[in-house]
Predict the structure.
Amino acid sequence: MTEEPRIVRTPNPPSAADAAGSGKRAVTATEVTQYLRRHPDFLVRHSELAEVLVPPTRDNGDGVVDLQYFLVQRLRGELSELRDQQHDLIATVRANTANQARVYEAVLAMMGAASFEHFIEIVTSDLAIILDVDVVALCIETNGFLDAGDRMAGVRILAPGRIDEVLGTGRDILLGAEMAGDADVFGGAAELVRSQAMSRLRFHPKAPNGLLVFGSRRDDTFHAGMGTELLMFLSRALEGCVRRWLDLPND
């Protein structure tokens, strides 16, 4: 018995109309309009769409201003401003994180000093490298045993009351941009300094005050708008190290 050949029919590919019918249909302009009317804050919640929208510039006549154009332009401006603020914030956070890590490294270096002389060397030499500044000065007001202008083991000796003159009476921190260096503080490196950060040091109520100063050749490394928390932390750590080496009580 001979089997008749079977004809296998391949179905025709679906037409565009069939595909549209079986899949999701296209959204009409009317539906988009109705949706936006029901959700007037849609573009506010999805402001990134402002970059792809084409604002209308048609003339409505009778002196009527097309507000849509200005609204879209405003959204674009706000979006651009927000992005700039975001970039600035990220840059600030990264810089603060880097500065924080440097200060922690500086404190650990001071705590690891093998002697008081080594400690002074770390403060006046190594901290400049660790903190990425050009010069570091450690000063102390004379108590009568040393003359102002002397330098003892890397520490600069200042006249009584000189720290108040430099910082300002009652002030403990000073950050200055476009601020020339003081020769009494920086010595020969004063001409290099264009911005600086200063912190008063209090070792003991009966001991003379000290001054920790960082100088930079850039006029914007330090400025009045900077935070002072890290500088204060470093100063308190330095005070603690001095008390330990000189066997001074905390109060």
